[in-house]
Amino acid sequence: MWAIVEAAGWPIWTIIAASVVSLAIILERLYTLRRGAVVPQGLLAQTLQEYRRIGDKDELLQRLQGHSPLGRLFAAGLRNVHGSREVMKEAIEDEGRQVAYLLERLLTTLGTIAAMAPLLGLLGTVIGMIEIFGSQNASGANPQQLAHGISVALYNTAFGLIVAIPSMMFYRYFRSKVDGLLVEMEAQAVKLVEVAHGERKNGS
């Protein structure tokens, strides 16, 4: 592997750095965007049961705030439960924008890496081509320099694509997953508002 890196020349280090950042983001988002951590099953029913038992006490609100992103929406709604239905929904929507920002965190960076990795590979290709042309002299081509230029061109192109393809795949996957989670959280938050204002009998 080290021989390949040496053959690819210095441009490969920019692609390696991008691959490390991309892998770190992918692993972090896979852990953070677990459905059970974002939209825990049964939280709506549990919240309504606790609300009926103790009301909108700080104990319940603080527990929900630190529980999960969905819990944060519920806490924002219950803080305004004595206001109108519209006030309660606005509070949930305001909190929802902050939650959405946290769920989408780092995805822009991952998308940027997916877009830039092929360009970094192209940069290495251009540098390799420059070395190939530089190997030409009056007595002909320098075989060593010619071979090195070809290696730089091909390896950088390949590594750029190797980093870009999975980065783009995970970027699209995470975007779709975040959108799905936000829709589900919105639906459960609406149920909370309707039950709290007597428009539904339960949170099912």
From TrEMBL:
<dbReference type="InterPro" id="IPR002898">
    <property type="entry name" value="MotA_ExbB_proton_chnl"/>
</dbReference>
<keyword id="KW-0966">Cell projection</keyword>
<keyword id="KW-0282">Flagellum</keyword>
<keyword id="KW-0653">Protein transport</keyword>
<protein>
    <submittedName>
        <fullName>Flagellar motor protein MotA</fullName>
    </submittedName>
</protein>
<keyword id="KW-0969">Cilium</keyword>
<dbReference type="InterPro" id="IPR050790">
    <property type="entry name" value="ExbB/TolQ_transport"/>
</dbReference>
<keyword id="KW-1133">Transmembrane helix</keyword>
<dbReference type="Pfam" id="PF01618">
    <property type="entry name" value="MotA_ExbB"/>
</dbReference>
<feature type="transmembrane region" description="Helical">
    <location>
        <begin position="12"/>
        <end position="31"/>
    </location>
</feature>
<feature type="transmembrane region" description="Helical">
    <location>
        <begin position="150"/>
        <end position="171"/>
    </location>
</feature>
<keyword id="KW-1003">Cell membrane</keyword>
<keyword id="KW-0813">Transport</keyword>
<keyword id="KW-0472">Membrane</keyword>
<feature type="transmembrane region" description="Helical">
    <location>
        <begin position="106"/>
        <end position="130"/>
    </location>
</feature>
<feature type="domain" description="MotA/TolQ/ExbB proton channel">
    <location>
        <begin position="67"/>
        <end position="186"/>
    </location>
</feature>
<comment type="similarity">
    <text>Belongs to the exbB/tolQ family.</text>
</comment>
<keyword id="KW-0812">Transmembrane</keyword>
